[in-house]
Design brief:
This protein is α/β, with parallel strands linked by helices. It has 3 domains: about 10-170, P-loop containing nucleotide triphosphate hydrolases (Rossmann fold, 3-Layer(aba) Sandwich); about 190-270, Rossmann fold (3-Layer(aba) Sandwich), CATH 3.40.50; about 275-395, Rossmann fold (3-Layer(aba) Sandwich), CATH 3.40.50. The chain is about 35% helix and about 15% strand. The protein has helices at about 20-30, 75-85, 100-115, 130-140, 155-165, 205-215, 230-235, 250-255, 265-275, 280-285, 310-325, 360-370, 380-385, 390-395, and strands at about 10-15, 45-55, 55-65, 90-95, 120, 145-150, 190, 220-225, 245, 265, 295-300, 330-335, 350, 375-380. The strands form 3 sheets. It has a 6-stranded mixed β-sheet, with helices on both faces. It has a 4-stranded parallel β-sheet with strand order 8-7-9-10, sandwiched between helices. A 4-stranded parallel β-sheet has the order 12-11-13-14, sandwiched between helices. Helix 3 links the parallel strand 4 and strand 5 (about 120). Helix 11 (about 310-325) runs parallel beside helix 13. The longest helix is centred in the middle third of the chain and has 14 residues, at about 155-165. The radius of gyration is 24 Å and the shape is elongated.
């Protein structure tokens, strides 16, 4: 299973067997992360290492199996390597011994298709000189980001690290100030956080923590309550917050208490606005009214957790959708970034969680095949708002672009 992660740019290191991927990743990380061997196929699965790059912060380097692995499990390893595309923000393609042919061209084509920036690195320059033929191929295929290095040359690694810093998309590591357009300094934000059996023991869930921090970053004020204390807070503590943000599953209860004059939305909806595909969610959510008997719906979760009887994505939301539509619906749930076993065409609709454990790139890559196939996509918070008839109220502060 491939797990999602928080906002750390993932950088994939790709290339043929024995191209020096492991040596290069060890050199960039400044320590032994991957096993280095002259035996082809030594790297059998993705190896990850978190490190700091000046100007970016923490990044995750991913060492992958060879693109031309001909071992007994080679095809499976190559498939696993290509699955890495779903989680990377930058690709580094290693070439050596003047090998630049079909595997590399297919790789670059995939990068372009998925809009993943890439750098082509000619490795082992201390041993192999790049031929004129390869230089011409690079030019013919419009490979502009190319650098020659030796994994054993510190200056080369510093130059490569600087190229990486320039190539990593800023959106993969710069935190958006989520509420910038909604609140001003000293605004009061009222956060409603139900505590039930699905809540983590002794702590808050990541979207709640992220919103609390964002409010503070905006020099504003948090008031955090359970839904049972909401009415008391509005009556006796602070009656006119700039906005009320609730856990989506409490929408029905909270919307009855919060006056229409006060903006109301959910953690999941705000997070969806940051993570991407929000316009597709706004357009796709009303498809709920068009669901038919025997339609299959895919529930996508960004994290892996042990489901409970109050699990929002696997229990509560499916039950609410069945009740709202009156239809006999089938639900599949896929956690993390695990493989989706069924064909895209099997699904009438896809509903994605808030995505707190994945980046913009991971989430958009996950949903791309469905959007491309014109299958409606929604988000937990937006779907819950829709079936509670507060969809337009909860999204009015986020118009379609």
């Amino acid at each position: 299973m491939i797990k999602g992660r928080e906002n750390k740019p993932h950088i994939g290191i790709f290339g043929r067997c024995n191209a020096g991927k492991s040596s290069l990743i060890n050199a960039i990380a400044g320590q032994s992360v991957s096993i280095v061997s002259e035996i082809a196929g030594t790297t059998t699965d993705s190896v990850k290492k978190t490190m700091e790059i000046k100007g970016i912060g923490a990044v995750v380097l991913i060492d992958t199996a060879g693109l031309d692995d001909t071992s007994l499990l080679g095809q499976q390893r190559i498939e696993r390597t290509m699955e890495t595309f779903a989680q990377i923000d930058l690709a580094i393609l290693i070439i050596t011994e003047n090998n630049f042919d079909l595997p590399e061209l297919k790789f670059i084509e995939q990068c372009k298709k998925l809009d993943i920036p890439y750098i082509v690195v000619g490795n082992k320059k201390d041993i192999f000189s790049l031929s004129d033929e390869i230089k011409n191929k690079l030019a013919t295929n419009k490979i502009n980001s190319f650098i020659e290095v030796s994994a054993f040359n510190k200056q080369d690694i510093e130059i490569l690290t600087e190229e990486i810093r320039k190539a990593v998309p800023a959106t993969s590591y710069q935190q958006k100030k989520i509420l910038d357009d909604i609140i001003t300094p000293r605004s009061v934000v009222l956060l409603v956080t139900p505590i039930d059996s699905s809540a983590p023991e002794g702590r808050m869930i990541l979207p709640q923590v992220q919103l609390i921090r964002n409010v503070l970053d905006n020099n504003s004020i948090n008031i955090v309550v359970k839904e049972t204390e909401l009415e008391y807070t509005l009556t006796n503590v602070y009656p006119h917050p700039a906005i009320v943000i609730t856990d989506s599953q409490a929408f029905e209860f909270v919307s009855r208490i919060v006056p229409e004059t006060i903006p109301l939305t959910s953690f999941s909806i705000i997070l969806a606005k940051v993570k991407g595909c929000f316009n597709q969610y706004l357009k796709g959510t009303p498809f709920i009214d068009k669901l038919q008997d025997n339609d299959r719906i895919l529930m996508l979760e960004s994290c892996s957790h042990q489901p409970t009887c109050e699990d929002i994505g696997r229990v509560k939301l499916p039950a609410w959708l069945k009740k709202y539509t009156g239809k006999s619906l089938t639900f599949d749930a896929v956690a993390g970034l695990s493989q989706i076993e069924r064909p895209v065409s099997d699904y009438a609709m896809v509903i994605q969680c808030g995505g707190c454990m994945v980046t913009h790139k991971q989430l958009t890559s996950r949903l791309f095949p469905f959007i491309e196939a014109n299958i409606p996509v929604s988000n937990y918070g937006l779907a819950i708002a829709y079936i509670n008839n507060i969809f337009y109220r909860a999204t009015s502060m986020f118009p379609i672009n």
